[in-house]
Amino acid sequence: MTINYLAILVSAIALMIVGWLWYGLFFRKIWSKQMGFDNIDPAKKEAMMQGMGWSYFQQFIAALVTSWVLAMFISMYVGWRNTTGLHAGLLTAFLAWLGFYLPVKWGDKIWGGKSWTILWIDLSHTLVGWLIAGIILGLWK
Asked: pTM for the whole thing?
């Protein structure tokens, strides 16, 4: 099993960029409103902003773990099916999202009371990010 650690790093960075685009640009207003961030006391909001660097660092570590595991899955799939990297990357990312991420987030919706809007924003963010990571990891051996 061959793992390209530079591809893992690049795919983790891509995951962070997708997150920034999704929650900071495309769906920021809708997501903030749905999460109740529009009504936060300014002092509390400032305190939240102070911890953002640590939060981003932790998210980057999580993105590295996700990329590494996805790279392992893709490598196993390529060896098992003797298929191309692109096909393996896309299919593996989609199946991991479908089988592992979607059910957990759906459970959050059922038991956590989050809105359908939040569910679909979170699900689509992760699907797009994982598909991009799958492409990077599948093609860049």
From this structure: 0.88
